[in-house]
Amino acid sequence: MGRAESLEGKMSTQDPSDLWSRSDGEAELLQDLGWYHGNLTRHAAEALLLSNGCDGSYLLRDSNERIGLYSLSVRAKDSVKHFHVEYTGYSFKFGFNEFSSLRDFVKHFANQPLIGSETGTLIVLKHPYPKKVEEPSIYESVRVHTAMQTGRSENDLVPTAPSLGTKEGYLTKQGGLVKTWKTRWFTLHRNELKYFKDQMSPEPIRILDLTECSAVQFDYSQERVNCFCLVFPFRTFYLCAKTGVEADEWIKILRWKLVKDKRY
């Protein structure tokens, strides 16, 4: 058996996280990559990048969809986007590129690749977010300690936290009084859908509370393609995306927000 066949056979049986090997056979473990965060969850990745990252920060983590699939979480202006990195059994695929070694993959990121999705928003990957960040080892002393409730058990201790579920991009919106269509920059964070005059505007034109929204659906009444609407008690908002895929993504995440809100 030749050296290439031996290496390929070895790669196909090992855990994908151990397979970022150079083509000359020198093993380099994925765990050694400083911005690989292992089984960090999607929620934790978004919270981390939104609170402490900046535009262009990114990290690599395991995907929960299947073995051999990873997620590249990337901080945009006001949201976090997630992209697949796939292990094929002999190489790793990201975007339009395929890499046979970890060295080639890292070199690609060292050159600050520019990526874009259906939103049309372009992001330069500039800042790998490290797995290990030093913090001062300081602890507070407990000076007051008492129970505020009585008679409760572990069944009453239910951990809860709001999901972040961020998204951003340009959409064309129909006006409320004057029925003209204008392109606005939209951001989705928790249960707030904001729209701005453009991406650089510091203050939103309006903030919509999605807890008041009763439905999100495709719309065919406006004689426009890729159109959908958000139904509120006081008004129905009509929005159009550039592509059907982008419209479907907005509808999917907005509906998920509505369903999730009804569970609590």
UniProtKB/TrEMBL annotation:
Q: Which PROSITE patterns match?
A: PH_DOMAIN, SH2
Keyword set, alphabetical order? Cytoplasm, Membrane, Phosphoprotein, SH2 domain
PH domain residues: 164-259
**What residues does the SH2 domain cover?**
35-129
UniProt keyword annotation of Cytoplasm present: yes
Q: Where is this region: Disordered?
A: 1-21
* Cellular compartments annotated: Cytoplasm; Membrane
Q: Supply the InterPro entries for this chain.
A: DAPP1_SH2 (IPR035843), PH-like_dom_sf (IPR011993), PH_domain (IPR001849), PI-Interact_SigTrans_Reg (IPR051707), SH2 (IPR000980), SH2_dom_sf (IPR036860)
Origin: domain of life? Eukaryota
Topological type in the membrane:
Peripheral membrane protein
Of the GO CC terms on this record, one is: membrane
Q: Which Pfam families match?
A: PH, SH2
Record CDD domains: PH_DAPP1 (cd10573), SH2_DAPP1_BAM32_like (cd10355)
Looking up Gene3D superfamilies in the UniProt record yields: Pleckstrin-homology domain (PH domain)/Phosphotyrosine-binding domain (PTB), SH2 domain
Cited function: May act as a B-cell-associated adapter that regulates B-cell antigen receptor (BCR)-signaling downstream of PI3K.
- Protein name, UniProt field: Dual adapter for phosphotyrosine and 3-phosphotyrosine and 3-phosphoinositide
Source lineage = Eukaryota, Metazoa, Chordata, Craniata, Vertebrata
